[in-house]
Amino acid sequence: xxxxxxxxxxxxxxxxxxxxxxxxxxxxxxxxxxxxxxxxxxxxxxxxxxxxxxxxxxxxxxxxxxxxxxxxxxxxxxxxxxxxxxxxxxxxxxxxxxxxxxxxxxxxxxxxxxxxxxxxxxxxxxxxxxxxxxxxxxxxxxxxxxxxxxxxxxxxxxxxxxxxxxxxxxxxxxxxxxxxxxxxxxxxxxxxxxxxxxxxxxxxxxxxxxxxxxxxxxxxxxxxxxxxxxxxxxxxxxxxxxxxxxxxxxxxxxxxxxxxxxxxxxxxxxxxxxxxxxxxxxxxxxxxxxxxxxxxxxxxxxxxxxxxxxxxxxxxxxxxxxxxxxxxxxxxxxxxxxxxxxxxxxxxxxxxxxxxxxxxxxxxxxxxxxxxxxxxxxxxxxxxxxxxxxxxxxxxxxxxxxxxxxxxxxxxxxxxxxxxxxxxxxxxxxxxxxxxxxxxxxxxxxxxxxxxxxxxxxxxxxxxxxxxxxxxxxxxxxxxxxxxxxxxxxxxxxxxxxxxxxx
Length: 503
Description:
Blueprint: H1 2-44, H2 48-51, E1 55-58, E2 63-67, E3 73-77, E4 86-94, E5 106-117, E6 120-125, E7 130-131, E8 149-159, E9 166-169, H3 171-174, E10 200-201, E11 207-213, E12 217-227, E13 244-255, E14 274-275, E15 278-279, E16 291-292, E17 313-317, H4 326-334, H5 336-342, E18 349-353, E19 368-373, E20 382-383, E21 386-388, E22 395-403, H6 413-417, H7 420-423, H8 432-449, H9 454-476, H10 497-500
Parallel strand pairs: 7-15, 17-18, 17-19, 19-22
Antiparallel strand pairs: 1-2, 2-3, 3-9, 4-5, 4-13, 5-6, 6-8, 8-9, 10-12, 11-12, 12-13, 14-16, 20-22, 21-22
Helix pairs in contact: 4-9, 8-9
């Protein structure tokens, strides 16, 4: 009996060992499988694909990812985009005239680089105002006391194992004034309440309006919201509630053109807009290498006296343009071809009309657009800005902004009763449109008193519009004001149509 019990115990022990032997590997496998799943899950949360799986990918010059749940944006930077120059161009798509921001206002065009510093990337604005002759030993000290600006520094969230591309969270950079100062600095001489001022930027209210991406430029459109709970000045009639105002700003990141453009230096005898550059290795008392602003026009047939350009300057008449004004606007632009013909070009400038169902937006910097607005408080009659490559002076794009009130009988009443216009003199525009408006008002009044026909009144508008478009397009071509030409003809000759009408 004792022997039988012993055998039974031994049998149970043997079976127990066999079961344990079988179960332990299974348990280990389950543990390993569980660990593997956990590891895979952890890896997913730290990879580019994992961190952007709920985002919409927007590819172009730079790649963006916008989260489809909360709207936040991430940016992917490739290694070949580091330490490479790009152009950062800022302009206002919609704004508050009282603080110098209005639709179509061009703000800044600067060179920047993206640089890596350990686990961070820096967005650095480059100082392009100085030149050093590379053959001069002083060029070895070209960075001495010349300050580049680190506009933003962002932590690298993760790096792609295959490509090395770096992912950044960019909300802190874009939904702030790090890239560009939007809110004007206060003037210490201005009395409190004398002028409308912006409150504090409210990041929670700021939002991305659009992320438009193309092979040679990436456009980030942002609505910036400013809050001031106790405003001392309510601003103009275009402001609904002075406690909270916003403006829509577009940041454009542009690849520096790779072409055979030949920069030209400024000659003070000819009035061009220019980018100032000083040669710090020159012994001249005028050590200037200022670059004039001009388009890159190249003849298709260089050996011929007159040739079409390889790439003409194309202007689009925006579909906001009143239809009765479109022929005059087109004529005002095309008249510049007479001047270009003297320079050896035919059809240098072309004009097209934006369709009412066009899918592209007039704010797209790839298009040069003649745009119209009808503002409660117009900041100008006409405004013709352009933006350039700061390294060469090559004009990369331009617009012409035109205000409807300057070609109507509508009186700008705020001009009659206060000095608001004088307060706005610090905004960047010329006064050609204002002078034309005054002339038109005088012309309309004289025509009415003299019982002239409606046809005469239409001609006043038509000729003044052609003149204003001619003027503003001249600015977009890089030309400054030519005051000397005002004395080309005396008062008697200037009224002879046979002499002046073709100009």
